[in-house]
Amino acid sequence: MLFDLDDTLVNRDQAVDNMFLKVLEACYGDVKQPVKNHMLNQFKEYDKKSFGYDNKINVLESLFDEFPPTYRLSRNDIQDFWNQHFANCFSINQQTLHIVNMIKEHVKVAIITNGSTKRQKAKIRNTNLDSCFDTILISEEVGMKKPDKRIFDLALDMLHVPAESALFVGDDMEKDIDGSQQANMKGIWFNPQQLTNDTEIKPYAEIDSLDRLLRYIT
Fold first, then answer.
1. Phi and psi for 167 in degrees, rounded to 5?
2. Sorting pLDDT into bands at 50, 70 and 90, what band is 54?
3. How many whole angstroms separate alpha carbon 34 and alpha carbon 116?
4. Does a cis peptide bond (omega within 30 degrees of 0) precede residue 69?
5. Which one of 41, 154, 200, 210 has the minimum C-beta count within 10 Å?
6. Phi/psi class of residue 160: alpha, beta or left (left: φ > 0; alpha: ψ in -120 to 50)?
7. What is the pTM (predicted TM-score) of this model?
């Protein structure tokens, strides 16, 4: 069983909220609640546009332009600030670790994630996921990224598992589900918010909580 990382095993949305608080503390000081809510929404929009890219300078530059800070980080310092703090903004539900370890008792487990090697490794290490998985593939490290079927093929080769025997669990319909199914795996859509699938992609199954995965291995 192979997994996506962000918004599947770890809650990236919550981490972005936590990162915003770091930015407030470093650059703004006291901000009234209605303004803070508006700033957070804009911050999330800027982050969404940069998702999957290592460079986060435009996220904070855009926020600073729209909401002038008390102390503005220089453009040269923004990336270092992001790298220093963002990985520490992640936490993991202990139930998630428990479920992964239960699954690992029955089948091989792996992570395939898009993103910066340094940042993704820090997230995985800080949430203790590094000890749970047989194989971890990060797009920057291997030179290909989801939905490219080659990254799924590589993971299967490393696990010595045929595609037809593998499940891939992820929240992104195109990158995770379509990508894995192009590699002849069964894609399970992790959809805790119960969103409507408005694509032509048909997942093998849909779950709203990770404990539903236990039925596939017991």
1. -115, 140
2. confident
3. 34
4. no
5. 200
6. left
7. 0.88
β-pair partners for 190: 207
SS3 22: helix
Tokens for 191, please give them.
């959809």
> Which two structure tokens, joined as six digits, stand for 126?
């800080």
Tokens of 158: 């490393």
Tokens of 5: 């990382």
Q: DSSP for 118-168? A: HHHHHHHHHTTGGGT-SEEEEHHHHT--TT-HHHHHHHHHHHT--GGG-EE
How would you classify the pairing of strands 186-190 and 205-207?
Answer: parallel
Report the DSSP beta bridge partners of residue 170: 189
Q: Are 82 and 60 in contact (CB under 8 A)?
A: yes
Number of residues in the chain:
218
